[in-house]
Fold Fibronectin type-III domain-containing protein.
Amino acid sequence: MGFDEDYQREVLEPARAAGDQPPEDLRLRYALPDRLEPEAVAARVRLVRQCWRRSRGQLKYRRLVDRLEAEHRELAPVFAAAERGDLRPLTERLRGGRERTRRRRTQARARLADAAGAPRMVTPAELESIARTCGVPRDELAGQARDDRIEVREPDPLPSAPPYAAYRKVRESLDVLGRRHLADFVFGGNLAGPMRVLGGFSAPASRGGVLRLDEEAVAAVSARWARRGRDSSTVHADTITAALRSGADPGELVLYDVTDRLRERLRQRASERALLRHAIEDLGVEPEDARRLVFAVVRESGPGGGLAGRLRALLDAGEVYAAAQLAGGPAASGDDGPSEEAALLAAEARQRLDAAVRLREEAAGEADPDRAWRLLADALRLVADLPEAAELQRRLAPRPVPSLRADVEDTVVRLSWPPSPSTAGEVTYRVVRRRDRPPLDAADGEVLAGTRDEQPPVNVPLFYGVVALRGEAAAEPAVAGPVFVRPELSEVELLPADGAVTGRWRCPAEAARVLVMRGGRLVPAGRDGFRERVPNGKTYHYRVCAVYLDAHGREVVTPGVRVSVTPSAPPDPVYEMSVEPDPHDPGVLQVRFKPPRYGTVELLLLDEPPPWPRSALLPVEEVRRAGRRLSAVPAPGGGLTVRPGVGGWLLAVTVAEGRAVVGAHHRHVNLPPPLRLVAERRGARVHLGFDWPSDVPEVRVTCRVGAEAIAAGRGDPEAGVHEIVTRAAYDAQGGLRVAVPEDQPVEVAVASACSVGDTRVTGPAVSVEVRARTVVRYQVERTGPPWRRALTVRLSASQPMRIARLTLVLRAGRVMPHRRDDGEPIGAWTEVPVPGEVSVPAPSASGPYWVRCFTDDDVIELTDPPVRQLHVHR
């Protein structure tokens, strides 16, 4: 019986103390030797099971042994394999047991920290409940609490009713007087530090010593308020001093006052950390007393606290099993028995526990893992800390993946599979890869991330497995294979030459050789390339394959890479070219050159001068990378027509079969014309405005005055007077002002300009014509005798002419008419000769008024006389 005693002491007793939780470490559970051998393992398992049967006769071990036997049924295949000599399942299970034990301890420690909260305190019942739920010995969890500086204690008893019946009136008076609590009212500024309220009141005094809340202190504050004049504040002070002199213990009054304020904040959903801050900073309670107060207030469900409060706290936290244990333990017994509220809460806990246990037992006998998982999920929703339920749920493996497909795409293997039929819980997938044989489980092989194997081994048999996981339980893997990754040649390139083709590539290191085929004929080639003489002008198609050796030494040829090439004579360069702007579209350039014998001419636009000499032969990709290829169309008379847009260097290259020869180049300066040119004649000046072209430093303004000069400019753009205007001058003047005769037509042309070396270059010009305008001056006079007054308008100009229509407008009041519609026409004439005069009867207006002349002729500008002639005062 020596083995039984040792086993009970080392295994069964600690497991019973942990809430009948069997140890996860199978080496400890079955007392396995350090060196695992099949015969020794089988003998030790039989010895341990015999000890279980003998120990089951003791009532205290009966439930634990039942759990051990139930779990052994699931472990039987592992020990059967070990007895046959296969120790791998047992080794993996031992490794997983240590990890689960460590995770369980970590979970218990985290739950303990959560329960302790900001005060860093837990009750003994909470500690016991956490230990039982997580399957950790209580003493071990208590040691972790000491290491984490978590105090295990019962909450301090707090007063449930005020020691003074009229406390609410006292509280109102304290709030009116702006006092934090009773001690602040009694001592005021004499409080020099935090006060202690548990076990009697005490606080440091500002002048040294300790303040006591005794009869002397109450008498002193009463006398202080008695010396004040009577007002509303003294009435409230009398209410407070009456409570202090009522015979109730002042220390108990202060304790209840502080506790009531904390309870009020708790009802307002304040957190434990906020309650601590309120007690220490706002109420001035000593930190240790503040921790104990917050701990006690939070643990009570109402002013009464006690068993009912602890039961409600456990039920609110979902720890129904712990609540049921507490309701059936010593805390619920006593002379008077539990309160009515506690009895109701205990009944609720037992009812929920019974329902959860039934669900757990039904799940244990259920053959369908998905339905069993859902039953256990329902049980855990009822009782979150139900023993064995979470562990049993974690061991329920989902249904395996129906099939797995592996597709090789060059050097990548892409995996795809339909999802597991299981729909209960969160099902995840693990992909493993193994060489030479299929993987047996989720740990047998190299684990891959995602559905793509980016770096598989080359030319070896690969097997892939996908394992469906739910929690810690894994289904049987779905396997695909064998798969062989035999990459093709990379960077395959065929270079045409004059009567020859050169091939080059990068060969995988695992390939034995390279096979090149053309038209069904084998082309001699090495591992790095080949060269073959062929006639020019014909397209040749090649298939370049990699050859691998399988496990038996047989050659395996890949499908290969298909490429084509057309050898030709080297292209001829463009030796000379001319570039001229299109006369009808300044943005288009006509590039003319002599067509080469071989190749096609392309035009590139470069930012810098070409880095290669003329006639240099280069790969066409290298030349095109240096600039922008321009879209070109054939030009009338030969050459190409392009629209380069921006400025740069135009380079002609001749392209043939992937090769390009560098030809002539030309510096192109892009000078876009000004946009939205407008002109307005203002007397002897014409004001110009336009959108200044971007990146243009200056413009050239050309002015042509008179009909003959304008006609000459249509044949010769250089005719006229020229002026260079900078951007700064244009911005400073707010436009351009050109002095011109008033009676002559004017054409103004504006073109972008810049200097390239010593040459000034001018872009296409835009022009606007301003018609001539004749200035006509008029006078308004009052003529005739007083009984027949008239208004006479006398007109004069520098040359005789006629006005098509003249209107005299009157407007009453003090505002001059600015348009013909601003007043009432009192006279209108057509074909009025200038010089000449017209008259109308004087208006009979009673107040001041204005008169003014207007004309519809847009080539005539009327000049007003002095204001005294236009404004008439009555």
Notes: Residues 500 and 533 are 4 Å apart (CA to CA). The chain has a mean pLDDT of 83. The radius of gyration is 53 Å.
